Amino acid sequence: MSANSFGTLFKVITFGESHGKALGVVIDGCPAGVKFDFDLIKANLDRRRPGQSSVTTSRQEADIPVVMSGVFENKTLGTPICIVVENTDQKSADYQEIKNSPRIGHADDMWKEKFDHVDYRGGGRSSGRETLCRVVAGSVAQMVAQQLSAKIQVKGFASEIGPYKLTPAELATVWKQNIDSYPTRFPSLKNNEIVTMLEQAKIEGESFGGVVELRVKNVPAGLGQPVFHKIKADLAQAMLSIGAATAIEIGEGFSASEIAGQEFHKESHSAKYGGIRGGITTGEEIIIRVAFKPTSSIKDTAKKGRHDPCIIPRAVPVVESMAWLVLTDHLLWTRLDKIESRF
Amino acid sequence: MSANSFGTLFKVITFGESHGKALGVVIDGCPAGVKFDFDLIKANLDRRRPGQSSVTTSRQEADIPVVMSGVFENKTLGTPICIVVENTDQKSADYQEIKNSPRIGHADDMWKEKFDHVDYRGGGRSSGRETLCRVVAGSVAQMVAQQLSAKIQVKGFASEIGPYKLTPAELATVWKQNIDSYPTRFPSLKNNEIVTMLEQAKIEGESFGGVVELRVKNVPAGLGQPVFHKIKADLAQAMLSIGAATAIEIGEGFSASEIAGQEFHKESHSAKYGGIRGGITTGEEIIIRVAFKPTSSIKDTAKKGRHDPCIIPRAVPVVESMAWLVLTDHLLWTRLDKIESRF
Amino acid sequence: MSANSFGTLFKVITFGESHGKALGVVIDGCPAGVKFDFDLIKANLDRRRPGQSSVTTSRQEADIPVVMSGVFENKTLGTPICIVVENTDQKSADYQEIKNSPRIGHADDMWKEKFDHVDYRGGGRSSGRETLCRVVAGSVAQMVAQQLSAKIQVKGFASEIGPYKLTPAELATVWKQNIDSYPTRFPSLKNNEIVTMLEQAKIEGESFGGVVELRVKNVPAGLGQPVFHKIKADLAQAMLSIGAATAIEIGEGFSASEIAGQEFHKESHSAKYGGIRGGITTGEEIIIRVAFKPTSSIKDTAKKGRHDPCIIPRAVPVVESMAWLVLTDHLLWTRLDKIESRF
Amino acid sequence: MSANSFGTLFKVITFGESHGKALGVVIDGCPAGVKFDFDLIKANLDRRRPGQSSVTTSRQEADIPVVMSGVFENKTLGTPICIVVENTDQKSADYQEIKNSPRIGHADDMWKEKFDHVDYRGGGRSSGRETLCRVVAGSVAQMVAQQLSAKIQVKGFASEIGPYKLTPAELATVWKQNIDSYPTRFPSLKNNEIVTMLEQAKIEGESFGGVVELRVKNVPAGLGQPVFHKIKADLAQAMLSIGAATAIEIGEGFSASEIAGQEFHKESHSAKYGGIRGGITTGEEIIIRVAFKPTSSIKDTAKKGRHDPCIIPRAVPVVESMAWLVLTDHLLWTRLDKIESRF
Lengths: 343, 343, 343, 343
Prior knowledge:
By secondary structure, the first copy, chain A, is of the alpha+beta class. Chain A has helices spanning about 40-50, 90-95, 110-115, 130-150, 170, 190-205, 230-240, 260-265, 310-335, and strands spanning about 5, 10-15, 20-30, 65-70, 70, 75, 80-85, 155-160, 165, 210-215, 245-250, 275, 280, 285-290. Chain A starts with a strand and ends in a 10-residue tail after the last helix. Chains in contact: A-B, A-C, A-D, B-C, B-D, C-D.
């Protein structure tokens, strides 16, 4: 079944356990002739990689992508693109003890319940390591989207980390910010304070949740499909398929219930809609927020130093990647909307 | 394409414009031998129907379902089940003027942008009327789910309507409440107050958003699939595919970021997880919340009396139906989990 | 599951039992703006209809198509097109006796084995009546294909009926022939002889098989997809999904094994390839042949006069319809081949 | 899109160009707990491998499968199984000249037409090398099928090679024969004669087509789905998706038209049906025949010695593999037939 595939036209299937030989992705549905930017994949993987700063796990994973198929002379062939990342830091021994004592907050017991036979060496498919496949696929999606619609931009950042929240003033600056220059990806002067909090948490086996906010600029109007594939529905599935994600808001989201209709609908072109009306992009900025619970690798279950005290900084490129997958799928989908094609 | 279908194994495809000849649904993937409860469909349609109380639109639609196929001698045949509801209250004339003046907050202009040729007579597929197909399909899903797992129960209710919010005490009583005995489906002594507010809003062309909360009891552990079809991902897509939905939370949702990990993960069996861990049901109560924006049919665009001042009461059976669709799909899906089947 | 759907982009789902309330089809994936030719559907249904001549069953079925959705002001909306045909000649009583005595050569016992609960009143979904949905859907596909590629033509005809076979000279004339002017759809002076044979067979409860040959002219080059969706693979599935079909040949087909390679591949542009190379259309004439076994309604199982002594004449529009479905699916699919779209 | 995937529940996606880094397959939908027989994969690959005898191409490809995911402690995990085979004999230089002179009978020009940007180094995805992925996937399917239904057996063999045809007497012995003991896989005393013919053809750049016949024994009754996924339809798609395949017959196939109905349908349990009635397996022996055209690598286009004078011997394991894929898909599918599951 399609349990491990995502997307309708730009179809992505991922494979690989966290402690198996390799993880990878096959993309079936990438058009031929897309200029292939291998460095983009590596750059995005580096942004997701553990060990990139003091606020992430100190585990080191090289994460070297190898293109197996679908690309020739730097362009896509129209055939399936398979990209594989071998696992190198497979310290299975570390996890041997887990075999009979599932970690609280993890899904080990659920998978056992479901499949009987599971890979107990560190989560298997339910490990956060699985998200690297999303970043690889999302990077290819980005190449496609930006060739179809050159000015489209996606920008994710941390808008909440534990008790910290970006202020409206800070939120107003995000398009001008170099998000990656903040180890927390929380674009605020509070960054250093949060770094200290997370370093402390790492020592104490504490962890924090947070919110990743995502903006999309210069998206063509008209993306999204009737009824079940509204673009907000596909974004919701995309984001809630990420391991620790617990909620998503589009535009006003939960605050929408606090505003009466005459105020809410005063103008057609309002950020309140989050760039989506009737499930279809309006061409205005898309605004979504994705909440994550605190990392479950805590205290005794967390190997000292080998856990993320907060997943948010590393979740940013994952959320961006899922957004690219949805956008690219729908960009291609509009080719089928009318008897006269748009692209 | 599958723009109008939902589900993987219990596959539902809906059709019909709000002012066309009929709406309906085809279910491809319902097993043979399911006892067919036609009255359940009618009862659920009545719960969604406009005109059921003073707080909903006064439009009257009979909504009579007709089974075209797939059922014989009160049992399903294993063949596609088609159920059609003819449109009777097609006052297209009312909408003729809309042709050249799209309504703010509606999606008319978006659809025009997308398809060029659209049904301007009242939203076509983007009309809320489309949701009746979901209720029909969800009712069939309920029949299947309750035959596979007799004790499973789904209960939706309004937990926020405009400025009103259920208190923790009120939330604790919901399983004992007869939700439908409240015209607002907001199980609280405040119900009358809200009725007055909504009747007033109907007169003034004002509208309110809110939140539908959904609980699922006695769900088997082990529902959900790896990575992209985590049950929370499928629930998110299901709910955000509803017209006015703007957000979804699973368990703690956005509050999850406010609790530190050692507190959050203190116990494996916690309502904080919302009954889902690793994307898989734990067997504990599922808790989700879906936010809706205020109805966009307001002021001059709303025909006097012919709009819903708040969609929440009528959204409750729709949210329940989408939940049944997801649950049934995943109940069937577990049959494929292991080489020795579970069912 | 998708047991009752066909196609990838131009997705067709059919429903309805032969003795239920209605049969019908939903098309999900028809672009907006297609000029809708309702008369074409009626004309093609008439070509498939029983009782159209002395060589077909004398059962009379009106087969009146009703468009439920997806069409407005004579153009498609881009939403699902549902078309329903009610059953009027449901003489279930005729079939009551079948309940406990499955007919040899029919599939009743197979369905019983599979589903336990079946519609014994005349085959249910395994009845030949199911093919009317294919003709309805194929007619819509034809509208789409001919708007995408105006000169494309599909022509089916009987090339074998029982012991009769078209001669090479007769085969050479088929594009000039009005096939429907022959009750047998066997374009030959032998037509009358065959009519006599079939009328006699009808009286005696005898039946004959045969071959439908199909030609496609002016098809664009480049239709078909890599590996599993070669156009010949999709045509094979399409044709072998028809009830009584037992075989399919593309181009030389089984004769290909009788010709040595140097002769076979002497020229690139050869009818031997049947218009398909590497699974992709070359732009040359497509030639396929579909074999059908003799009708299984014979002798005691056949109601006097109420069976087809040979299904071939009525199979011609069904084979054509399946071809249109495949062609249209692949015409749309080419829109996704390259980063610069073709259509 | 799903251009490179096959199957509905046991879903297989293949990737890789003949001269790229690797070929491989991902299986999404294999249940957990299947005993994994790696040697079966290697054995079947060896049966397909070039260079295995004097009648096949002398190209040598090691074809070493590497399991990347989905298997742990010799059992399947229920997660996607990825198996990769690296290309080692990539003599691209040999093919450089092909860049501007497409080979007659090959699909190079078709792919160029379709995708603009293609891999000219030897067919890319349209190379016969692609079939090794089918053999890998088919071997896994075989493991699943034989655990679900222990006695099921699949047996393929050459029944025609160029001018040679198995006699009825020879056909009657096939279940007792060790097919692989014949280099031609044509189980007849004529084997040596054919070997001589093919060795000569290899020298002269000549080639021959033929027919692979396939039998399936001890298959459960009830496999196949209504209407579009009749098992014969899925088998037809499976077989016609193989590069050089030109035709398929089920049971009597084209001969069915030569037998009158009263004779044809004399008994329910007849080899004439080929083990399939109403598109559903009867439990009797399945009999199908697949025709292949002569290899197109001939004369000047064929590198001396590096072409197959007849693809039939090496096509046998490919046809068997495609059969296993279809059978396993449908074995799993029956789990969804009824509200009470069969397995």
